[in-house]
């Protein structure tokens, strides 16, 4: 009898556990479906929901913050808030953690700003710059690059009409909006690779929808993190290799302490539509320059305006294709733009600019000098900018380069 009672009790317990498991499994399945449906609905089915929810910050309840509306013109984006992102930040509710954007080229009125000479890109105390950003190309035959928060890719799509207008390509971005899940200001390797997968899938999905003939290949694993430590110019192999090869840092201007003795680069990739090389004068070289030029009235004036608080840096950038259509030399004023077929100097932005033609499309090259460093180094920059433009032209097959005149580098500019 005791054995029968124990058996009946065991059977009841087994049934209770089974019913609970079925109910819990059903709830978990519904929750999984609801989260995926939220992403699919907000992103018009263009963005891979499973990959989004697998990102850091994608846990807990997820709610749409912005939605892509197929009937509206591009660019558009979808974005999401999550409980996990809020918990990581020590808050209740939900916090923005991810966004994806889609756009077609030409992008129209949108401008591409060059670096701002008044923003100290290499000063770790700058509250607006967590780390200096020199975007890393994705590689693997994918036109695109990774930054400190996300990935942007481009799918060429020439000759296809969208909403009655011919387009040249598609851009898609995937961004982890919160910095709470970054390591030392950078995306984790897993998030960086997953964002690349999301951006590529999004571009391909939109390409299929509007009839683009090609598709992007799967991005490679292990996309490199951003370089954050400047190196000796002689060790550069990517977007700054030209500076070491030209030997400018060891020439008269360089050895006198005015030209940069360190560079910050990314890998060079002909498929990206924007590339950047940061150059700076190290603290040791600055100290030596002060001692060497302390009796020079022009240097004393510069030192007084500099105050020793700002980095001495240069930024060499190039823009290609649609990105070169409207390059603003002054990040604050969109109307101050580089003009195709010409070269010049924007004294308000401390920026020299040149133009060329690469693969039959326009290209713009900009050399920005930090303020007030520009006032002292300007007279030494003509061979620097020329070496940079010539290197880009050789690497990417550009022709018809037009540079600033020598007068644009004269002292006092």
Rg over CA atoms: 26 Å
Average pLDDT, rounded to a whole number, is 86
Q: Helix/strand/pairing class, anyone?
A: alpha+beta
Helix amount, in percent?
25-40%
Distance between the termini: 104 Å
Question: Can you give keywords for this protein?
Answer:
413 residues, single chain, 2 domains, 7-stranded antiparallel β-sheet, disordered N terminus, globular
Give structural notes.
Helix content is 30%, strand content 27%. With 413 residues, it is an alpha+beta fold. It folds into 2 domains: 28-111 and 132-210, no CATH class; 233-409, no CATH class. Strands 1-2-3-8-7-6-5 form a 7-stranded antiparallel sheet. Strands 9, 10, 11, 14, 15, 16 and 17 form a 7-stranded antiparallel sheet that branches. The chain has a 3-stranded mixed sheet with strand order 4-12-13, with no helix packed on it. A hairpin with a 2-residue loop joins strand 15 (351-358) and strand 16 (361-369). The chain crosses the membrane at residues 12-33. Keywords: Membrane, Transmembrane, Transmembrane helix.
Give the secondary structure arrangement, pairings included:
Blueprint: H1 2-42, H2 49-53, E1 62-66, E2 76-82, H3 83-88, E3 95-105, E4 112-113, E5 136-139, E6 142-146, E7 150-162, E8 165-176, H4 189-210, H5 241-246, H6 252-255, E9 262-264, E10 274-281, H7 283-293, H8 297-306, E11 312-320, E12 327-330, E13 333-337, E14 344-346, E15 351-358, E16 361-369, H9 373-377, H10 382-396, E17 398-402
Parallel strand pairs: 4-12
Antiparallel strand pairs: 1-2, 2-3, 3-8, 5-6, 6-7, 7-8, 9-10, 10-11, 11-16, 12-13, 14-15, 15-16, 15-17
């Amino acid at each position: 009898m005791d054995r029968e009672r124990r058996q009946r009790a065991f059977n009841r317990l087994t049934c209770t556990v089974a019913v609970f498991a079925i109910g819990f499994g059903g709830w978990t399945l519904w929750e999984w479906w609801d989260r995926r449906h939220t992403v699919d609905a907000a992103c018009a089915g263009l963005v891979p929901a499973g990959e989004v929810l697998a990102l850091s910050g994608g846990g807990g309840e997820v709610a749409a913050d912005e939605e892509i509306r197929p009937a509206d013109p591009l660019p558009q984006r979808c974005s999401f808030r999550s409980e996990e992102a809020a918990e990581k930040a020590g808050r209740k509710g939900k916090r923005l953690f991810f966004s994806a954007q889609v756009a077609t080229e030409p992008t129209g009125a949108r401008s591409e700003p060059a670096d701002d000479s008044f923003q100290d890109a290499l000063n770790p105390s700058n509250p607006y710059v967590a780390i200096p950003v020199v975007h890393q190309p994705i590689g693997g035959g994918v036109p695109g690059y990774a930054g400190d928060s996300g990935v942007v890719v481009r799918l060429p799509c020439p000759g296809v009409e969208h909403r009655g207008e011919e387009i040249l390509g598609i851009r898609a971005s995937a961004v982890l909006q919160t910095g709470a899940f970054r390591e030392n200001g950078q995306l984790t390797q897993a998030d960086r690779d997953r964002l690349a997968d999301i951006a590529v899938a999004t571009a391909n999905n939109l390409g299929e929808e509007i009839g683009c003939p090609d598709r992007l290949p799967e991005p490679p694993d292990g996309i490199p993190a951003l370089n954050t430590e400047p190196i000796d110019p002689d060790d550069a192999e990517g977007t700054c290799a030209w500076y070491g090869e030209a030997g400018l840092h060891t020439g008269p201007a360089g050895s006198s302490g005015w030209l940069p003795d360190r560079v910050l680069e990314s890998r060079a990739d002909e498929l990206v539509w924007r590339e950047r090389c940061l150059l700076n004068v190290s603290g040791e070289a600055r100290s030596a320059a002060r001692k060497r030029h302390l009796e020079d009235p022009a240097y004393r004036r510069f030192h007084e305006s500099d105050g020793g608080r700002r980095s001495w840096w240069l930024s060499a950038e190039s823009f290609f294709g649609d990105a070169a259509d409207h390059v603003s030399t002054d990040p604050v004023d969109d109307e101050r733009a580089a003009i195709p077929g010409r070269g010049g100097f924007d004294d308000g932005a401390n920026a020299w600019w040149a133009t060329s033609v690469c693969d039959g499309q326009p290209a713009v090259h900009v050399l920005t000098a930090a303020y007030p460093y520009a006032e002292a180094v300007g007279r030494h920059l003509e061979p620097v900018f020329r070496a940079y433009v010539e290197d880009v032209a050789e690497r990417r097959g550009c022709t018809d380069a037009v540079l600033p005149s020598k007068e644009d580098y004269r002292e006092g500019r």
